[in-house]
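seq/struct pair 1
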Amino acid sequence: MHTKLALSGIIACALAATATTTTAVAAGPAATGGGYACTHNPNSSVRIRANAGTNYRILGGVPNGRYVTVRGSKYGTDGNLWYRVSYGRITGWARYDYIC
């Protein structure tokens, strides 16, 4: 009886140790490094905001195709992932799907 219990405990531990979970990761560059401003219109700019969310003040814009430095990331008030970016003298937040 003890052998059966011990064996089932070992199997349960082995199963728990091999169980894996999957986490969705947003597309885009790493949380630090760099990327390029990407818009649907080649003549437009990516808005840089004071914080992560569309309800925050616009600090400036990055022309399509220009390089930005990515300094970090967090989820914004809109539930989307935002990158903290620097472009020239502007440092603020841009939504992840506009940095590629």
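seq/struct pair 2
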Amino acid sequence: MEQNATLDNPPETTLPFWKVLTGTMLIASGLIFGVASALDKYDHFKAEQAKPIYSQYAAELTKSSYEVMAAHLSSDITGEAVIDMDNFKVPVKFVFNSKIQYSGVVAEPVIDIQILEIGVITNMAGTNEFSDFTNFEDHKAINAAIVAYIKKHNLLEGV
């Protein structure tokens, strides 16, 4: 049997180096591009799932509790109150407008409150201060709590 050197082999039996290199590069780059695009689509899918949903019903997901700890009417139209909102003390200065509405025999006061200022919010112990984190839904609930407190304790009679 005769041995031939590699350089002496005919072209049909040897693999051309540049064709192999080009094919390998094309397959590798296609594989890398495919994996990268699949991961990119997966990341977008995960990011869309992780976005919080903000809607008009978001307030119902995290209901807060509101309780008037103390309230004082300083004049015919102004007052101050301290609200317990989820174990935070929220001092509030407000302006109110009251009028008597007659519904049949019973005369019931109708009170409209507008919050002027929310003071420094602290924890119940009063040791930590927080910046104002209340939103529109909190303001509506605080107004309703103050109105209920004023009506329950008949604070309008003393002013």
